[in-house]
Automatic annotation (TrEMBL):
Catalytic residues, chain numbering: 258
GO molecular function, one term: protein dimerization activity
O-methyltransferase dimerisation domain span: 23-107
Organism: Astragalus membranaceus
Bilayer-spanning residue ranges: none
Protein name: isoflavone 7-O-methyltransferase
Reactions accelerated catalytically: a 7-hydroxyisoflavone + S-adenosyl-L-methionine = a 7-methoxyisoflavone + S-adenosyl-L-homocysteine + H(+)
Record-annotated O-methyltransferase C-terminal domain positions: 129-335
A GO biological process held by the record: methylation
Superkingdom, natural source: Eukaryota
Top-level enzyme category: transferase
InterPro entries (alphabetical): COMT-like, COMT_C, COMT_dimerisation, SAM-dependent_MTases_sf, WH-like_DNA-bd_sf, WH_DNA-bd_sf
Amino acid sequence: MGSRYVQKANDLFEGQTLLYAQIFGYLKTVCLKWAVQLGIPDIIKNHGESITLPELLSKLKVPPSKTSCVPRLMRFLAHNRIFDIHVNQKGHLSYSLTPASELLVSSSDHCLSPVVTMFTNQVLMGVNHHLGEWVCGEVPTLFEVALGTSFWELVKDKPSYMNLFNEGMASDSKMVDLALKNYSSIFEGIDSIVDVGGGTGTTAKIMSAKFSNLKCIVFDLPHVVANLLGSDNLSYVGGDMFISIPKADAVLLKWILHDWTDEKCIEILEKCKYSVSSKESKGKVIIIDTVIIEKEDDQYMADTKLSMDIFMLGLKGKERTEKEWKQLFIEAGFKHYKIFPIFGFRSLIEVYP
Ligand SMILES: C[S@@+](CC[C@H](N)C(=O)[O-])C[C@H]1O[C@@H](n2cnc3c(N)ncnc32)[C@H](O)[C@@H]1O
Ligand SMILES: O=c1cc(-c2ccc(O)c(O)c2)oc2c(O)c(O)ccc12
């Protein structure tokens, strides 16, 4: 009886700790934002391998009354694998970059700081406080409940949000080159490709530079591609993917379908199928998006994918399992598909008519 009581109490205290970890989960987000705002990744990179606490403090514009925050911030971020922390024999601290913070160095070829800035924007983050109110009401999207406008209208009407979003997306797309280097076979037999929802053209620039014989078209909403200049094998076309998509041998959809409901995705995929139809069975749609694999994803991978799934509720979008993807492809009239898990938490899916 006594030991059962102790066990129950221990379980409840364990539950309490878990709840507090969840309650304070957002501090991982804001401390990451804080480190980027302070420019800590750049300071460490410019300094060399690792930086001592006094050296870091000498570079930061933190008044003496607040310098004690810095080792606490660094301890928390090191705990979360954003930095490495070293203690020498005298007990002095120094810090170095991890693969995650290498991606926050502004001179890096794959700097993701604009992604951090975009997703940690105070107004955009605040939208998620309205989930409870949204789900019980009739207003279709969380964005409309929170801000009185849809996500796409907000981006269209407010240049500061458009820049924040396009820069975030562009920096995310730079990592495409890491995967394309090893998978050029994807482009064999393809003379032209249209990047639907291709934003300001970061992915298309990578493809057009790597394959000089490949004609690349960036297709996005008119206000996104207005005033952008192409090159020999790269052009910009403005339009609406729900109306018509330029013809090409292949269509690329990177981070597009997770923005939309199943019904809207089927409409987009049908338009894509028509776009690649002149190439008959050789035409294909290349999707770069998340595939949830419940049995295989480890805790970390599942955390990222399932968090994005909740996040996409803001637009009525979603992340999908393989079964859900397959259903979309069948309903849009495609016959085969092949998944290549080559983009970290996202995969490349080839879909054939
Ligand atoms: C999440 S972003 C992805 C951008 C880019 N593919 C990438 O991965 O970096 C979605 C893109 O879809 C575009 N978009 C939204 N609605 C669209 C429509 N109806 N027709 C064409 N593009 C659209 C947006 O302007 C935006 O650039
Ligand atoms: O800043 C945001 C950006 C996005 C967003 C839109 C399209 C994408 O393809 C994507 O990957 C992310 O969605 C949000 C959201 O859903 C929220 O609830 C709150 C903020 C945002």
